[in-house]
Q: What sequence folds into this?
């Protein structure tokens, strides 16, 4: 399936249940890259989605100064960001990068369900649900990513997640771009897989099948079946770069943003705490669960199947598939009863 920038894309706001039409930034540019340039001049397309070009675009878009306080306020207003959520004062946001990498008072403004059975959202994001199990109503066969390719072709973790469930969290440029832990547990593995810097615009996802498996990414495997853990088996958290994302900085902080440390094998990490920071642009998190361990929140499942919402992903998958806009640390799923 192909789509055009004239095709609207809608999602559901979780807090209000309203259907919202997304204002896709750079939609025509993405259309040119993925539906014309990619087909007609693939060498140029590969160059434009390279690390070097992505870094250059990021500098031009994020590192030039914002001249005045009034202009800074207007940037926040245009992007729909409430600067009062931020830890730092308005005067500190002198570039778009600083706005993008802002810290927020999440401990006050993003309350978390402390029930040990709750799995929480890793980001302020637009969420899609799916499953690799043919018996699941959420079954999506390798549309957004190939599991083995996503985890790395030589990864030893693939068998654990085969036929499991997953959540794709798409962070748009206006979002808060710290990632938080969806579960508590011990880091069993963390590694990087090299790749491209494709856009996470829905148009790009539709144009290139399994696009998330092709981007540079960091995979963290969390063993939750430990003392103090969430007891839902292994959870894979995949952090994926996108166009103009120069880096994923691992910066785990058990309390607010104080004393951040690199995420490493053997580290115990707490649910809801900051894990890493995208620097900067739009990007994607994917959570993958072992089969039969969790059940997604009913409202998210219901939203994903709505046929009255115009989603670019619907035709791509052959059935209704709708995103829900969610907040970081809000409930995403729960441990299934009787599962250990």
A:
């Amino acid at each position: 399936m192909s789509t055009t920038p004239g095709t609207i894309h809608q999602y559901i706001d979780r807090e209000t249940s309203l259907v919202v039409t997304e204002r896709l930034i750079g939609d025509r540019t993405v259309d040119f890259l993925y539906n014309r340039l990619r087909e007609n001049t693939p060498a140029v397309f590969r160059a434009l989605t390279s690390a070097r070009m992505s870094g250059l675009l990021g500098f031009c878009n994020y590192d030039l100064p914002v001249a005045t306080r009034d202009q800074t306020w207007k940037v926040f207003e245009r992007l729909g960001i409430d600067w009062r959520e931020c830890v730092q004062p308005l005067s500190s946001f002198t570039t778009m990068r600083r706005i993008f990498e802002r810290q927020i008072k999440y401990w006050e403004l993003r309350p978390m369900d402390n029930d040990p059975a709750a799995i929480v959202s890793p980001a302020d994001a637009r969420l899609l649900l799916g499953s690799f199990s043919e018996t699941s109503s959420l079954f999506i066969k390798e549309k957004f990513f190939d599991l083995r390719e996503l985890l790395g072709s030589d990864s030893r973790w693939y068998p654990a997640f085969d036929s499991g469930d997953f959540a794709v969290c798409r962070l748009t440029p206006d979002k808060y771009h710290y990632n938080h832990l969806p579960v508590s547990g011990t880091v069993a593995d963390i590694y990087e897989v090299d790749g491209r810097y494709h856009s996470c615009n829905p148009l790009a996802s539709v144009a290139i099948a399994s696009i998330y498996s092709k981007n540079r990414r960091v995979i963290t495997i969390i063993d939750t079946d430990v003392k103090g853990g969430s007891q839902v088996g292994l959870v894979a958290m995949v952090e994926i770069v996108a166009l103009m994302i120069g880096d994923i900085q691992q910066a785990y902080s058990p309390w607010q943003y104080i004393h951040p440390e690199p995420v490493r094998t053997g580290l115990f990490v707490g649910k809801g705490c900051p894990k890493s920071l995208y620097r900067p642009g739009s990007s994607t998190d994917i959570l993958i669960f072992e089969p039969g361990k969790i059940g997604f929140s009913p409202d998210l499942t219901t939203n994903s199947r709505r046929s009255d919402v115009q989603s670019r992903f619907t035709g791509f998958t052959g059935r209704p598939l709708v995103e829900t806009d969610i907040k970081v640390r809000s409930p995403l799923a729960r441990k299934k009863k009787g599962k250990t």
Observations:
- The two ends are 41 Å apart (CA to CA).
- Confidence is low (pLDDT under 50) at residues 53-60.
